[in-house]
Design a protein that fits this description.
The complex is a heterodimer of chains A (about 110) and B (about 120). Chain A contains no helices and eleven strands. Chain A has strands at about 5, 10-15, 20-25, 30-40, 45-50, 55-60, 60-65, 70-75, 85-95, 100, 105-110. Helices cover about 0% and strands about 55% of the residues of chain B. Chain B has strands at about 5, 10-15, 20-25, 30-40, 45-50, 55-60, 65-75, 75-80, 90-100, 105, 110-115. In chain B, a hairpin with a 7-residue loop joins β9 (about 90-100) and β10 (about 105). Classes of the chains: A mainly beta (about 110), B mainly beta (about 120).
Chain lengths: ~110, ~120
């Protein structure tokens, strides 16, 4: 069925390096995407979002890229820090005001 | 801003008892709240969507008589797990979406339920 999926379930990076977490979505009608960070035992924390009329959006140390042609979403974290270690989820919203569909998650591990 | 709280953060109960979990939006009015369930090492699974003043909409496979949801005000939604069994043990997370904020959902810290 339709879903939002991730290419890599785990990702290990060295402190200071850049991290890239990928996400594929299957529904071309999706119009809004969100990246969440979830630390162990806690609820998801909003990181950054992007609408389908944009290709790129930047935040503090994070950038989200959206490629609608291949239905691909990525989260780039610059100068990754140990505090960035967590599970990252992408989520898509398939219509305005609708419910979010979550991907499987990628566990990011930052080595000091 | 956009703070969502849950209470309790952790609960242990005996099989057959009922447990109520509260979800509150602390600094905004939430027209819609969502309840999710998450098993270890898995993604979030939406259980139901709760709109203030109306009945909740449950996802397929979620028993509405077992998971009672009440959204009595714009800042409070409750999830009651009735006659809990060990298989109901899980991490329950709520999220809230404010009027005018369209799709952005902000999540609570979660409630860990253990049914013995």
């Amino acid at each position: 069925g339709e879903s939002v999926g991730l290419h890599l379930p785990t990702l290990s990076v060295q402190e200071g390096d850049n991290s890239i977490i990928n996400c594929a979505y299957s529904n071309s009608a999706s119009d809004y995407f969100i990246w969440y960070k979830q630390e162990s035992g806690k609820g998801p924390q909003f990181i950054i979002d992007i609408r389908s009329n944009m290709d790129k959006r930047q935040g503090q140390r994070v950038t989200v890229l959206l490629n609608k042609t291949v239905k691909h979403l990525s989260l780039q974290i610059a100068a990754t820090q140990p505090g960035d270690s967590a599970v990252y989820f992408c989520a898509e919203n398939r219509r305005q005001g609708g419910k979010l569909i979550f991907g499987q998650g990628t566990e990011l591990s930052v080595k000091p | 801003g956009a703070v969502v709280s849950q209470h309790p953060s952790r609960v242990i109960c005996k099989s057959g008892t009922s447990v109520k979990i509260e979800c509150r939006s602390l600094d905004f009015q939430a027209t819609t709240m969502f309840w999710y369930r998450q098993f270890p090492k898995q993604s979030l699974m939406l259980m139901a969507t709760s709109n203030e003043g109306s009945k909740a909409t449950y996802e397929q496979g979620v028993e509405k008589d077992k998971f009672l949801i009440n959204h009595a005000s714009l800042t409070l939604s409750t999830l009651t797990v009735t006659s809990a069994h060990p298989e109901d043990s899980s991490f329950y997370i709520c999220s809230a979406r404010a009027r005018g904020w369209q799709e952005t959902q902000y999540f609570g810290p979660g409630t860990r339920l253990l049914v013995l």
